[in-house]
Amino acid sequence: MAKPVIHGDTIRVPSNPEFLSDVDVFLEGTLRGFGVDESAVADIAISVSELVNNAMVHGNKSSDEKMVTVRITRFKNTVTITVSDEGSGFDPTVVPDPLAEENLMHEVGRGLFIVRSLMDKVDVEATVTGTRVAITKAV
Amino acid sequence: MKLTDREISDIVVLEPKGKIMGGPDASLLHDKLYELLENEKKRIVIDLAGVEWMNSTGLGILISSYTTLRNNEGQLKLANVTDKIQSLLTITKLVTVFDAYDSVEDAVKSFG
Lengths: 139, 112
Hints:
The complex is a heterodimer.
Chain A: E1 5-7, E2 10-14, H1 20-33, H2 38-59, E3 67-75, E4 78-84, H3 111-118, E5 121-127, E6 130-138
Antiparallel strand pairs in A: 1-2, 2-3, 3-4, 4-6, 5-6
Helix pairs in contact in A: 1-2, 2-3
Chain B: E1 2-8, E2 11-20, H1 24-38, E3 43-47, E4 51-54, H2 56-71, E5 75-79, H3 83-91, E6 99-101, H4 104-109
Parallel strand pairs in B: 2-3, 2-4, 3-5, 5-6
Antiparallel strand pairs in B: 1-2
């Protein structure tokens, strides 16, 4: 199986949940290096874990052969993280309302809702060569 | 995530520590819960004091635990919910589902 690869501001991991913690260690270390406060580090880490989960499961269909790429950039007082998969493109915004009474006890389906709640900006770009989600937060 | 447990007056207190983000975390808690049910332990407190943060997978694990216990005539209570997790429970409206207490002692007492 492929292994995680770190290059500058980017980490690439195979689509296996055992690598979620590798992404988190890289992400939180980078954010603390930027001087981001702990509350914002947690919000961003939660959001990225949601997006990487989605990219692995829904984008890459849990194929170890396909990678998820996470890139972290800082511009002035904002941090932007892009999460890209190598799937055939899926629209993560098409999910039932997790706040509807009939969905409240569902075990899944809250990921992007939480990301939108914690981040200042969320952009989704789904193409036939994969889905790319960019999240931005003022720090 | 790491998981330890202890028992107070026939009530089991589960103590996850670290981050609950998915992967092996779900099976760790599920397996523990089923082990407890097999041993007729149906009154459970999850002490969240040591959980730095959780994502929607973590919330799903709490829901699954709640439902599994309820379906087996058991009960789940939460204790020491951190601000970060409380915020997630609030925005997802799950705050209306779970019984949460400020301390393990209060959660244990609530079983009566």
